Amino acid sequence: xxxxxxxxxxxxxxxxxxxxxxxxxxxxxxxxxxxxxxxxxxxxxxxxxxxxxxxxxxxxxxxxxxxxxxxxxxxxxxxxxxxxxxxxxxxxxxxxxxxxxxxxxxxxxxxxxxxxxxxxxxxxxxxxxxxxxxxxxxxxxxxxxxxxxxxxxxxxxxxxxxxxxxxxxxxxxxxxxxxxxxxxxxxxxxxxxxxxxxxxxxxxxxxxxxxxxxxxxxxxxxxxxxxxxxxxxxxxxxxxxxxxxxxxxxxxxxxxxxxxxxxxxxxxxxxxxxxxxxxxxxxxxxxxxxxxxxxxxxxxxxxxxxxxxxxxxxxxxxxxxxxxxxxxxxxxxxxxxxxxxxxxxxxxxxxxxxxxxxxxxxxxxxxxxxxxxxxxxxxxxxxxxxxxxxxxxxxxxxxxxxxx
Length: 404
Known about the structure:
- By secondary structure, the protein is α/β, with parallel strands linked by helices.
- The protein is built from 12 helices and 17 strands.
- Helix 7 (257-265) packs antiparallel against helix 10 and helix 8 packs across helix 10 (314-327).
- The mean pLDDT is 94.
């Protein structure tokens, strides 16, 4: 049964001066809020290893943000911004980034009403010779309510990954109210980013510098990675009065079989770095249900966790995925999820969450409320009154799941 949740109940006043518009000079200079057993306290992020139980598995999302925002110009002079969301042809990220002449993407297009059927050329105000020789062009293939399918063509034989590096800009969040700058190229990316595909950073990981990673290793904590490519849906506001009216976008994720077997064979505390890691981990259970009931894993529907009671223990569901991968000679699970985590959600895997502070009336704030048993307002009131910086470049928190 879909929960009847009014998004207006998850509102708070966020003054503009509380929003961090730029990163701090060093990644790990941020503050850290700790929430455990209903108590809130203030610390420095550099202390984070002290708070992670020694028997933990710490899970990081190693997706890499791509410079997915491109600026084109019509012959009339009108500017058209194209924001690449997800690959269409080829449909796999690794394949589309390897294309050397043309490819198609699902995109959000600014000023889309001013773009008819003409071929656009990349806006090149500096008359950069490399950009000019590349001759990047865009043609709109089809359009639906929110997105367009756009075909890109270019000269010179460069892979599309390099085309984006040369021509694109980092898609920083719109609430920063500024254009991307040189600092964002490095700092809107985690140190451990590896696989291209996200149009938004998994921002909980932005705080981790080498010192923290080393402190975690010295403590004997296992560090594992998953990969969920973050879509533009993370920026989309909830416009419906009831959360039931909000549509979550599909995000692809990959989890290795070896990590699945670690989860099956141990009872260690699972620490998720970021809401994207939580959504991936919790999606695994429902992928396992699909294996048990249908014989194969399938994409996770938005409301699957709330539609019925599931009789399967967590480890049975995870084992079903591992068995499927073994039977098919596969080393990793790769599917998609639209899962939404709201109050009333039953957590099965994640025990601790490292995360930033999120926007009012957002799906991420609903996830936080679900994780801390409704105590989100206590946490956010503390953060606001103690000078914490908010949103993507803001401060951090470590939240221990409320289990009662």
